[in-house]
Specification:
This protein is mainly alpha-helical and about 260 residues long. The protein has twelve helices and no strands. The longest helix is centred in the last third of the chain and has 39 residues. It is globular, with a radius of gyration of 23 Å. About 30% of the residues are buried.
């Protein structure tokens, strides 16, 4: 019953959209049934042996997900490691803080030409992929880095004093004390960065890609295929919702101890 009270507005909006779109009769504003049919035809009408994925799905959706998660994982590792180290050293943070503020203020899509020039000098056959990953990592790393720094700084002195009593090494302190205590902040940054990774993945494919969901969206727009454009937008929305929901489930499972510790008696 609670679920119905939360989602009842969705079928109502879809019905209103269906009738409104059919009344207008504009190909740039197709009804939901047409969009679903386009999604099925484009990506989910393949053989059962491939989980009903079409060639377009395998050639575009899977590479996009690989780039998104690859860039996000790299940014997460860089942000967490650097954030833990900087957060425990105020002197180091004071030195690099101007660089962090400057870097996070730069719009990542504007750096795509710079990355293209840099990778051209490397003469790598994976130049476009390197550029796309570099753009995603650069745009995604800041929420993780800043939240990791904040989390490492805000550790209760009781924890650090206990670590001193037990004569833990610096590495042991980071692993046993600092990282667990900062994990709620870190997960907040990771969740925000995951949404940014999806956005930047689409942008890099729109600007310089030769495959992927963003590239497919661009091709549909150039061919004036309104149903395919809306189908791609809908797919991106569904992917964003599913990825965020899975992350929330993982976060709740990993941070169950934190919820229990902060629960009011």
């Amino acid at each position: 019953m609670k679920l119905l009270t939360k989602i009842w507005v969705i079928p109502v909006l879809l019905v209103v959209w269906e009738f409104a779109a059919r009344a207008v009769g504009n190909t740039d504003f197709p009804p939901p049934t047409t969009i679903v049919a386009a999604m099925y035809e484009l990506w989910f009408s393949g053989p059962a042996s491939r989980i009903f994925l079409t060639d377009d799905a395998i050639d575009n959706i899977l590479p996009s997900l690989g780039r998104m998660f690859g860039g996000w994982i790299l940014a997460a590792l860089i942000g967490i490691i650097a954030g833990m180290l900087l957060g425990r050293s105020r002197t180091a943070t004071d030195y690099v803080d101007p660089l962090i503020e400057f870097g996070r203020s730069l719009p990542p899509p504007l750096l795509i030409p710079v990355f293209l020039v840099l990778q051209a000098g490397l003469h790598s056959p994976y130049g476009v992929l390197i550029t796309q990953l570099a753009t995603i990592v650069f745009g995604v790393v800041w929420p993780v880095l800043l939240n990791s720094i904040d989390g490492a700084r805000a550790i209760d002195r009781t924890y650090t004093e206990t670590a001193t009593v037990f004569n833990l090494t610096r590495f042991q302190r980071l692993r046993v004390v600092v990282l667990p205590a900062a994990s709620p902040k870190i997960f907040a940054g990771l969740r925000l960065s995951l949404s940014l990774a999806l956005i930047l993945m689409v942008l890099t494919e729109l600007i310089g890609g030769s495959d992927g969901i963003g590239y497919q969206l661009l091709q549909a727009q150039r061919s004036f295929d309104g149903a395919a454009v809306w189908a791609t937008i809908t797919l991106l929305g569904i992917l964003g919702y599913v990825v965020n929901s899975l992350f929330v489930l993982a976060e709740r499972r990993v941070l169950v101890w934190h919820r229990q510790a902060t629960r009011n008696p």
